[in-house]
Specification:
single chain, 444 residues, Thrombin, subunit H, Rossmann fold, Substrate Binding Domain Of Dnak, Chain:A, Domain 2, 21% strand, elongated, nucleotide-binding, ATP-binding, flagellum, cell projection, T3SS_ATPase_C
Length: 444
Amino acid sequence: MARAGAALVRLPRLALHGRVVSAGSVSFTIEGLAPWTRLGTRLLLEGAAGEALPGEVVALRDGLATALAFAPLEGIGIGAAAHLAPPAMLAVEESWLGRVLDPLGRPLDGHGPLRPGPLPRSLRTPPPAAGTRARLGPRLDLGVRALDAFATCRRGQRLGLFAASGVGKSTLMAMLAAGAACDVVVLGLVGERGRELREFLEDDLGPEGLARAVTVCATSDSPALMRREAAYAAMTVAEHFAAAGAQVLLLMDSVTRFAMALREIGLAAGEPPATRGYTPGVFAELPRLLERAGPREEGNAGSITGLFTVLVEGDDHDEPVADAVRGILDGHVVLDRKIGEAGRYPAIDVLRSLSRTVPGCLGPEERRLMLRARRILALQAEMSDLVRLGAYRAGTDPAVDEAIRLGPRIEAMLAQAKAERGTVDSAFAALAAALEPSHAGGAA
């Protein structure tokens, strides 16, 4: 028996592999592995120079597996071998703070390899069960007056930042990363311009902000799988720190590019295009990602406060991705190009921005101030054309006169330099000062 056991040990282990039977610009088809694969199974594809190219199965039909790669497919030919690979995992560790990595856990900052943690985490995990999930925590200082006063956020809340390109979205994210009251910041940069990565980290975020942040980046030239995986990897890193009891701020830029990557993958897998070319799988996957943010299970003090940017194409805030994301999240913040063109930054349109948790985190006096300021700004916007044309005569309507006097003071209070920091209390103190009658009379 001993000799038989020794002989069995010396036998070569069973190795499953298939071969490529067709390849395109983004996908390839493998035969021989379909019975042992599932959707999402990881593969290693042998390149022409012997390198291992990671991929993932995205469709199964007629005994063949369709897969996409995490890198360009140049050099892959018919007959190339494909092997099964371990599932997607990230072994997050505390030493990752201050580091920049790609979605596969490889360093991008040139500071050496990342030390793995003892417990690898799957990139695909379900959100906490709704019945055992903790409630939202106390209000959170975001450090931006316009948000703290008009879209007050609570720990574990999820907000969407809706903006067209070039409206100051990246600068606002840097202000949040540097000024929010949290323990850890996780940045998920999905499809960002490669040129802007170092500028954002070194100039906007700075050494102090970078020291408490983990950045996961897949640039715009990355394959669709890498861009999609960047969102999952950032969420997995955030879940690791939240499970340890930390207050995590997750900033993801952008959900739209994540949806675009899902659309590319779905089309390559044979899904039919639906709304504006987006496949049905996109709208099934969005809540699976976004619902993972928020409070943890009851008894765990950690939480993930998520701010997810949405690129609105052509300033259309009702396009499919924006509409779907707005229905999933706990509020939305709108950045308006006209406000930025007028020179007020951050260019947040407070009248179109909303936090659904405001009733649970504002006191009676704070709520009164916020509602009064909203009414004044709304009336000022309504009467602006008449005032500009000289069609309104002062003294005709006291409410309009008040809006003309106080509106500019509120706008001045909303303006904030990138280096300024604040709290919810200081934001409401500034709003109260802007609404004081004595100040209004002096301004008049």
